[in-house]
Amino acid sequence: MTLTPQRQVRAEERPPQTEPSRGPDRFSAGAYPWVMAAAVAVSVCGAALSLNGVLRGWAWFLPVLTTVMVVSLAMAVLRSVRAQPVLVPLGGLASLVLILTFTFFRRDSIAGFIPSDKTMPALGRLLRRASETVLAESAPVAPNAGIVLVTCAALGLVVILVDALALPLGMPATSGLGLLAVLVVPAMIKPQSVGLAGFVATAAGYLVILACSQWFAPDARTQADTARNPGQIKRAALTGSVALVAALLLQLAIPGFNQGTFPQGSRLNPWGSSNGLNPMISLGNSLRSPSGDGRITYATNATEPLYLRSVTVDRFDGEAWSPDDRESTRRAGPGRMDVGHEILAPEQLRQITAVNTGEFTSPYLPAPYAPEAVNGLTGRWSWDPATLTIKGIDTNSRNQQYLVLSSSPKLTTELLNQSSAPVQGVPEEFIRPPANLPEIVRTTADSVTQNSGTAYAKAIAIQRYLRAGDFTYSLESPLQGGYDGNGLSVLADFLTQKSGYCIHFASAMAVMARVEGIPSRIAVGYAPGRLTGATVSVAGQGALPEFEVDARDAHAWPELYFQGLGWVPFEPTPSRGVVPPYAQDPSSGGASTNDGNNDGLIPTNGATPPATPETPPLPLPGTGEGDAGSQLAPLLYGTAAVLVLVLVAASPRLVRGSIRARRLRRPASGRNGQAAVPLAWAELLDLAADYGVPPVASETPRNFSARLRGSPALSPDDGGEQEGAASAGSIQARSMDGGPTDAGRRAVITLTGDFERHEYGRPGTGQAGPDGEGDPTAGDQTPAQQIALVREALRRNAGLMARLRADWLPPSVMSRWGWIAGTPFRAVRGVAARVRRAVAGLWDKVRDGARRLREG
Amino acid sequence: MEPHRRTVVNEVLQGGHGFAGGAAHGGHQLNGHKPVELDAVAFRTASERILSAINTVIDGKAEAAKLALTVLLAQGHLLLEDVPGVGKTLLAKTLARTIDCSVSRIQFTPDLLPSDVTGVSIYNQSSRQFEFRPGAVFANIVIGDEINRASAKTQSALLECMEEHQVTVDGHSYGLAAPFMVVATQNPIEMEGTYPLPEAQRDRFMARISMGYPDKDSEIEMLETHQATSPLERVTAVVTSADVAAMIATVQQVYVSEAVKEYTVAVGRATRDSAMLRLGASPRSMLQLLRAAKATAALDGRDFVLPDDVVAVAESVLAHRIILDRKAASTGETPQSVIRGILAKLPVSQEMADSAIAHRRAAGSGQPAPRSGRQTPELRHSR
User: Fold this and answer.
1) What is the CATH number of the domain that holds B191?
2) Which residues of B touch A826 (CB under 8 A)?
3) pTM for this one?
4) HSE, side-chain direction, 13 A CA sphere, residue A500
5) How many domains does chain A have?
6) In the prediction, which pLDDT does A314 show?
7) Which of B261, B300, B383 to mutate to test the interface with A (most CBs of A within 10 A)?
8) Contacts for A515 with CB less than 8 Å, ≥ 6 apart
9) Same domain for A649 and A791?
């Protein structure tokens, strides 16, 4: 740290020198790493502020803050001790791992912060939890440990990325990319987008980075960038192309723009058919999806159109509806399931359904209602007695083939009409009307049902209201109306605008039913599918016709509870699904049966008017574990991929830069430091190699120096004259014109002279030799400055391609790597040659012996 | 014997020291007083005066002149080998004349006797004892013309003096003058009745120079300047022999680093390991190579030797000592080309080797080492 004052002084005294030297010692400034680390930390924390709203509350901010701080600090420390630039991001990664371990796996690690073999399972648990959260909840999600872990890891990576862009790569402007990666999340997920505070904080942090890199740059490099630097256009082009590539990659990686203020976009998800954050949210997207992702086939002996049901939503409070898994009451093993309430219907219908989920990936298992037993599953599954949803414990629905035995009461209008007994034995959450219910919902419900006596009549009235001509089925209008998704305010909008799709119809009916005192919930899954024409052989049932459904069949519908009959599905959505016979409006007769029903949905063997209600099971539209990660995991992957890409692309450059910095750092310890001379010479050799004048082993330093000066790299105009001129005087004369090329040539001469004296001169004679006239212009400069002059001259004379190559694929590094890579081959070749010689020698001996034998 | 020995210049035969005492002197070392070293400027002035004086006489042979001076300052002997009429003798004479010192010239013929070279003890009638009459070798600079025409015996006598810097006659040793330098010329064209120097004796010469033909302009100029009078007439001594002794002392003080010693030894070993050579360079030649390099460094204004200096003199110093393999000779190789090849392959220092090793591929085979043999063009930025 004692170097700090010197360094600063040097930085200040340099500006008067007009040469825009690219300072080789730019990593070594004392305060610089600390200031930059602080700037990066501030900016990333600022960007993280905008995540409020994606994550609920502020509890997550403290771990994020510590993570960002620790990673920044670690890198700053590494930098201040002048570690190799490559080591700095690696150190940052290591510190990230340590702090994450410390924060989240303190008990499962060694000494509280060193990952151990117990950490991985714990990590797996948390990640699974995060993915479940992502799957199950819509923004803002609860900041449980898994989510916070993922957030912290992502932000830590962003810190490293931003740092790498701003410091070793010297492109502080592009560090905005890393910050942008953070902002993309709230921009996509939060309805109100990034938000002013988050944006301002991020922009401020970004400006801090830019300002610090400008003010504290320890050399003229970045300062020179602001004016007439020949490398400026190149760097600008480079920045632009990196940004473009990153934008294209991000587009592939992120889940899509259908929330928040970004216009609707389509999603490209390379990780399978998963596409959602929340079944409720993803439903609309599935329906709009032009492709049939998540295809499920099933074969059933049911005579009615079969709904596959995945999950139910029963909490209608708040702005975001999501499934409640009731983890505490779930039971393991769906082999035997029990509806949990009394069924008084005289006749039970039992169906067997064989389901093949194929690529469909979700933690919830699509099954017809009400499942009694599910056989043939792999992995561990649990079921919820209250809703009969089946959920994977450590697995998901991908590639499952299973047999569902389901039963439901044979429902008739009469039975339902009779079910007027007060509801008993249903959990409170299915009954309670949502708090702060919009007034329009209540008034609508009351006006619709005012003439209805029984609960069943009310339900039918509500369904009729929704299926009547006032409401239109549309996937687009909610989007344009700005009320897509779910929630009470969305419901109010829907009732006003009278246009929406199944989720709106289902939620409207469910909420209105609750208002009228009927327990209700929303089931999410698949509407009845289409016949594929194939048959599936099911044990004991013979060949059953096969149906298929995919994302386009995703559906939601209400289930209402009737005492003694259990949960009864209804179909309020016009033009979707099949209205069960018991739910058909007596007043409209059979007309409503076909009203809006999908033609192809009715199975052939169920073509007769439906008499019994099939439980409408609805599979989730493509949602799944795979997706679960999809919201954050792609970001993680994306960030990591961009980071790796940038690092890999830059690594020869980084290595070269670090070599140069290490070599030229030495002069700081003393201007006449003898050790500096050979290091500067080595740097000169590499520099020349980078610009196409590689040294030759048999060359003397002087010959090399002359060749370098005579090469086009340093005398583009008149190399021949230079070569021909024999006297030192001509050099002196030429140096008078004082261009950068001449400065470079002079510097080469000085460096060569210094090196010769150091290498071959009498020890201890220091700088000036006996001949020491010295070069008055160059003699008082440090070797590092000389190198900078040479570099400047070389750059000036090199073409664009040569400069790019010298910067990004410097031959001095690449060929050394090539040499190292070739070592095994050379060794093999050497051994082979030795063997060949030995064999040849042996053969000669044998031949000689034979001849001697013959002659003797 | 008189007709065969023509002493062209024999004015300042300094017999005073050397043979009078009769004691054996130390050989190589400058005997008697220890000369003062010159500082860089004085050395440079003196060397430039000598070289420019020579260049006024011999046109277009600056390199040869410089090498001759190098050999003089390195206390070596010079073998000038070339076809007749290219100025071998003129060079030798001019060098001798620029220095204010004793010069003798021996025209070697088959019937020249060893005693003509070394001297002979003659019975003095008046003093009634044997007196030593010094031979032609008792001079600072001895020019031996057409040395290969003399018999092996006479050659040996001269070579012995060259090596030992003394003459032994009748049990007495007489030290030779200092500085002492033999400039011998030899005609490489096969001729009747010549005795080419055996390899072992060529080893005594520090360097061999082939003069070569002058270029066109130099030749035209030569025709003009040499028409009326010999320019040799106009040459006067520009330095004293004491100056030369001081210069020699300066050269001896030139520093030789470990790296250069290693490089020199590496050159020698490379000649011995070379498959193209039947006989490599001897350890003595290494010594001479290094001494010549020191003189080169001093003439270049440095007080330390660079590998460049070694390279600069290597061909002249080594080429006449090595013997080509028959196979190599049949493929048109010459000793010079072999030396050049060795130098072009030999890594100069670990730094250069380390740095270059990786770049070998990048450099490509099409980029030969820029080595111009005898001269390194790059001494010009020296300060």
Assistant:
1) 3.40.50.300
2) none
3) 0.49
4) 31
5) 4
6) 78
7) B383
8) A433, A437, A441, A442, A445, A446
9) no
Range of the domain at B68: 1-253
Q: Which of A586-590, A694-698, B62-66 has the highest mean pLDDT?
A: B62-66
Question: Nearest C-alpha of chain A: how many angstroms from B378?
Answer: 6
In 3-state terms, what secondary structure has residue A14?
A: coil
**Nearest to residue A310, comparing CAs of A291, A325, A331?**
A325
From the list B361, B370, B383, the residue facing A815 with the nearest CB is: B361
Reported as a pLDDT band with limits 50, 70 and 90, residue B71 is very high
**A660, part of any domain:** no
Nearest residue on chain A to B38, alpha-carbon basis = A770
Checking if the pLDDT of A751 tops 70, the result is yes
Indicate the pLDDT class of residue A626, thresholds 50, 70 and 90.
Answer: very low
Which phi and psi (to 5°) does residue A349 adopt?
-100, 130
Q: What does pLDDT average to over chain B?
A: 78
Residue B198 has pLDDT above 80, yes or no: no
Query: Which ipTM did the prediction report?
Result: 0.77
Higher-confidence residue of A530 and A254: namely A530
Q: The CATH number of the domain where A465 resides is what?
A: 3.10.620.30
- The pair of structure tokens assigned to A662 is 């290490």
Tokens found for residue A69: 């701080």
Q: Is residue A543 located within the same domain as residue A683?
A: no
Inspect the interface and report whether the beta carbons of A699 and B352 lie closer than 8 Å.
Answer: yes
Nearest by CB to B383, from A699, A726, A771: name it: A771
Q: Which of A121-125, A767-771, B253-257 has the highest mean pLDDT?
A: B253-257
- Same domain for A569 and A674, yes or no, is no
A562: tokens are: 């009737």
> What are residue A536's DSSP bridge partners?
A544
Over the stretch A804-828, which tens digit does the pLDDT of each residue have?
A: 888 888 888 887 777 777 778 888 8
**Backbone conformation region of residue B193, classed left if phi is above 0, alpha if psi is from -120 to 50, else beta:** left
Top-confidence range, A173-177, A640-644, B281-285, B347-351: B281-285
Element (H or E) spanning A66, and its range?
helix A61-80
Is residue B348 within 8 angstroms of chain A, CB to CB? yes
User: Which range marks the domain in which residue A382 is found?
Assistant: 281-628
- A642 and A617 share a domain? no
Q: Do A701 and B352 touch (CB under 8 A)?
A: yes
CATH of the domain at B328: 1.10.8.80
The owner of tokens 């020890």 is: A763
- Say whether B381 and A705 touch across the interface (CB within 8 A): yes
